Amino acid sequence: MRKPSRGLAAALALVVAAGVAGSMGVANATGGHGHGHGQSKPKIKNVIYLLGDGMGRTHVTAARERYYGADGKLNMEKFPAVGQVSTYAVQQASGQPGDADFAPNYVTDSASAATAWSSGVKTYNAALGVDAKGNVVPTIMEYAKLAGLRTGNVSTAEITDATPAGQMSHALLRGCQGPTYSDAACQNPALTGGANLPTTDVRVTPIADQIARNNTADVILGGGLSRFDAADESALEANGYDVLGSPTSQTVATKSDLAGASSKKVFALFNKGNMTIEKYKRENPASVQAQEPTVAEMTKKAIDLLKKGNSRGFYLQVEGALIDKRSHANDAAQTLEEMKAFDEAVKVAYDFAKKDGHTLVIVTADHECAGFNIIEKGTFTNAEATTPPANADSGNPANNSTPSRPAGGTKDPVRSSGIINGAGSGDPANFAPATFRTPDDPAGVVDGTPEASLWLTYLSGNHTGADVPVFAYGPDSDELEGSIDNTDLFGIVGGALKIVH
User: Fold this and answer.
1) Per-residue pLDDT tens over the stretch 2-33
2) Could you give phi then psi for residue 359, rounded to 5 degrees?
């Protein structure tokens, strides 16, 4: 096991400070999306940035229809400003958009997306807090901390995972999480000229080590206790954190521990890995996992802690991570419950912002996951078919494409053995849709039946390159309207908090 030198935090502070000095005065170039409609607006003191990992437009629609019906709305859909965000990454060693050596990668991962909104630069998949050529770039949470704001980071994933880590670390490879160091997980010789960097370099320092020592976030809540060890616990305590649970004994914190926390700096991890899905906790209320707080409970507590004795303001990032992880698994039932849980965290932020009057709330996603789709009741997908659909147009033969398929559209009984959460639930090779009742269905209709009105399917088990939605409430929320890029979010947040100009 290797730990960083005691000079790591100081070295990083110098790098970040240099980055701040070099970036001041240019941030609006990345976020230049206007400043409202010429009206006087309340001063923004706080920004709450909520990220539904993997949440595409269809995830929002499906969750709305599942829980509130066709005429209902999720909390995020009640926000006055709505837009869409492009999410593409770049290839390793690429320049930025507009550079001669710019080389896009149209489907991002969570790490490059987190770097885009945290630092305002495009980078390669797997990179955190570095540009595509491996240079350290400061994050918006580091800017906020240096400017005297309180800071918080909440996630239902391991806190060392890409989205939360994107605010608190700098790594050539996102897999360099800890607690142990390895060249395979941390080094990237393909980017660094074929040689390994010295292990004192922050870019190859395990993310858990960085988080425990750099003081970037005052309140840290989530999963991933197994990434931290006794030395990390000592470092956290030396930095003034109230550590709930214990990395040393690998004792996870509980929601009761969180409820009793009152310190200005709190570190609490509630699972050794990712936190537990809400569906399991709901179905197993007596389980150990049911002692984990919800993302809404963590969000409320984080806000309560961050606003204590705080005149400058705060920046809080909240991630509903399991939307993505359950979409990768093509489990629609679990995905929908994670969407609802995340939207309840949105309500916590929304309610606070409405009372506070000086808080900008942004809700968006890093990317879409798995090509989530709503299909017509009673129909089936290409994945269930013996052949793709016919593409002949008998009225105009010129409308045929190549190859021409004059016939198709029949189900393959081997690939479609019944609704995947109903009659076909025992078949692991089944490609059929999952079906769910909605409030609009007649009494007696249940999930997993042909009568249920919401039919959901997936395109793949991976990310897609689709634009993602963004919703905003509060002063300057109109900055988020229309079409923006994920790098614009850096300038919008930094400008709102007056920490970059």
Assistant:
1) 443 334 444 445 554 444 333 333 333 333 33
2) -120, 130
Calpha distance 64→389 (Å, rounded): 30
Distance CA 447, CA 54 (A): 24
Of 302, 161, 177, which Cα lies nearest the Cα of 228? 177
Active-site residue, 416 included: no
Judged on CB neighbours under 10 Å (0-12, 13-18, 19+), 396 is: exposed
The strand order across the sheet containing 242-244 reads 242-244, 266-269, 219-223, 150-158, 314-320, 46-52, 359-364, 468-473, 81-86, 482-485
Distance (Å, rounded) from C-alpha 454 to C-alpha 408?
Answer: 25
- 């033969």: which residue's tokens? 397
> What does the alpha-carbon distance between residue 275 and residue 278 come to, in Å, rounded to a whole number?
9
DSSP E strand stretches across 27-76: 46-52
Burial label for 40, CB within 10 Å (0-12, 13-18, 19+), is exposed
3-class SS shares of the chain: helix, strand, coil, % to 5 = 35, 15, 50
The pTM of the full predicted model, rounded to 2 decimals, is: 0.93
Catalytic residue among 23, 110, 226, 416: 110
CA distance 473 to 358: 11
CB 298 within 8 Å of CB 241 = no
CB 131 within 8 A of CB 137: yes
Averaged pLDDT for residues 34-49: 71
Q: How many CB atoms lie within 10 A of CB 19?
A: 19
